[in-house]
C-alpha cells in the first residue's frame, strides 16, 4: 500500500494540529498503518526545539501490558501455562485466592487496581518479593470472574510469571520474543535519545511542570516501556494480522475476542486477553491505551481491513478520546479501501452437493462454500445462529465462530452416498422441513403437514 494521497495527508495533519493546539500539548505525533506499512506520519509541537520524528521516543504506559500478554500467550501455546491455571501455580506464595491467568489478562480477576503503598506511577518501584509480600486477601476487591475491574497489580503478577518461566526478566523476554522479531529496536524500558520529556500542563495557564520518571520495579510490566511512532506502527501491523511468527494469527485473534465489557449494555469498550477493545465508527478495534505521568499514547488496529492508527504525546492530559477514530474516519472518507477482486474457486472438492437450503425443523438455513474452502451455515433471514466451519481430517467439520463454535458438524449420507441430513451437535438439518426420510429426533408425525 502506497502512502496516503497528499490531500488526505493534509486533512490528517490538520486534525492533529487542532488537537495539539486545543489540547495544549507540548508535542503530539500520529500515524496511520495500512497493509503492514506506515502510510502516514504527522507531528506537531517540539521536542528539544525540533519537531518530533517517527524515531522520537515517548513513554507508552499500559501498551506495555499487551507486549507482556503476548509472551504469556506464547507460553500458553507452548503448553507451559494454562489460561485456567491459578496464578499461584506459577508464582507460589501469593495470597490472592484462585484468580486465573485468563482473569488477570482480561482484568476480571477482581484484584485491586493499584499496588499497596505510594502512588506507583510517580515513585520508585520495589522488588517483586517486597510487592507480593504486601498482597493479601484485601487485595481482592471482587469475586474473580464477576466483573471488569482494571488491575495494574494483575500485570505485575503476569510479568513475574513470564520471568519465572523464561529464567530472565520480563523485559528481556519481551525484547527477545516480541520486540526483536518484529523489528521494534527502539522500544526500551528506559528512555534513550531523542526522547520527549513528560510534562503536566497547568489547567488555567500555559505553563509546564516536569513529571517524574523512574524504574517501576515489580510494577513495571503494567506500564514501563518507552517506544517510538515507528515501532508502534509495527505493533499496529502485528495486531492487524502481520504477526511475523511471534504468535499464530489464530492466537492473536483469540486475544482480540471480547472477554468482558467495561461500559455495560452499550458495549463500546472492553477487553480480550491483554488487549483493549473498542467499537467505534463502524469498526471493531483492538489495541491499548497508555498513560503515565507526562505521557499519553494509544494504538488501535482493525484486522478486518488491515489498518492501524496511533498517537503519542508528552502530556499528562489533553488528548481527546475520539482523535484516532476521527483519523480513521478521514481515511475512510477520502481513501476508502477497495474490496478484493472476486475470482472463481478452481477446486470445490465435491462440496457443491452440500450447498443450498437446509432446514432446522421449519427454520430455513443456507449452506455456502467459502473461498478458503470452509462452509458457512446461516439463517436465510440473516438473523439467528450462524457459524463458519472448517474441514477435519476425519470428514467432519469444526465450528469456528458463532453459536456453533467448537461444535462438530457431520454430513450423514444415504446408501448412494448422497447427503441426507446434517447432524450438528444433535440438531438435525434436513433438505425439506422435517423431512420424514431423515432421522429426525422424536420422529415426524405420520400425517405430515396439514391445513
From TrEMBL:
Return one GO MF term.
Answer: hydrolase activity
> Which Gene3D superfamilies does the annotation name?
DD-peptidase/beta-lactamase superfamily
Q: Which residues form a coiled coil?
A: none
List the SUPFAM superfamilies hit by this protein, alphabetically.
Answer: beta-lactamase/transpeptidase-like (SSF56601)
Q: Which Pfam families match?
A: Beta-lactamase, DUF7586
InterPro entries assigned: AmpC-like (IPR050491), Beta-lactam-related (IPR001466), Beta-lactam/transpept-like (IPR012338), DUF7586 (IPR056008)
Q: Which keywords belong to this entry?
A: Hydrolase
Beta-lactamase-related domain span: 17-319
Residue intervals of the DUF7586 domain: 350-431
PANTHER family recorded: D-ALANYL-D-ALANINE CARBOXYPEPTIDASE, D-ALANYL-D-ALANINE-CARBOXYPEPTIDASE/ENDOPEPTIDASE AMPH
| Name of protein | Serine hydrolase domain-containing protein
Q: Which organism is it from?
A: Streptosporangium longisporum
